[in-house]
Amino acid sequence: MNQLRWLQFGGVVMGVTAVLLISLITSGMFDPKPVGELAQTWPPLTLTIPAQEEQITWLPELLPASNFSLHTTLTYQSGEPDGGAGIVLATDCANIIIVLSPLGYATIQQQPLPAVHCPLLTDFPWQPWPHVRTGTQANQIWANIEDGQMQVRINRELLWAGEMTFKPERIGIYGESWGTDAASATAVYHFSQIQLFQSN
To answer: For FRET with 173, which of 6, 98, 108, 130 sits at 20 to 30 Å CA-CA?
Structure first.
């Protein structure tokens, strides 16, 4: 009889523990945190990219010299899905571009500036990634720059992490369209917000 009571008590404890754990997970208790506190929020932006072109729209403010995080949410709205959009971080020797495609692909590209030597940050060519949401579903891009290290998360899942020996100075939004039909290949992406978190 005592053994049955202990089994019942153990079942109740396990059930309560499971419910508590699920509640903590759904509340975001274990979600990755940004670096520092929210310092700035830019208003929504829309990027329209003609066929066979790429576009960058730079934000006017400079990025801080301290550690920081950038969060944005982007949505493919219409037009050519064969392409992508994301954010670009400008350094004094290269542009670092983090791009997602509505077809489920992701990439991190480094575009060196002319006549400037820049150590390679990473080689992450276009490839399918299961955490990229396809079609018109919203995708989050998080970039953390902290103590010479960079982390890139897509929808809170770690895409890439590594050393970053040069400090980004500016941020912009980036888009490209690979369609060939000028009448239908224009792609439209919407950035609902861009947030900057900054450490003291």
So the answer is: 130
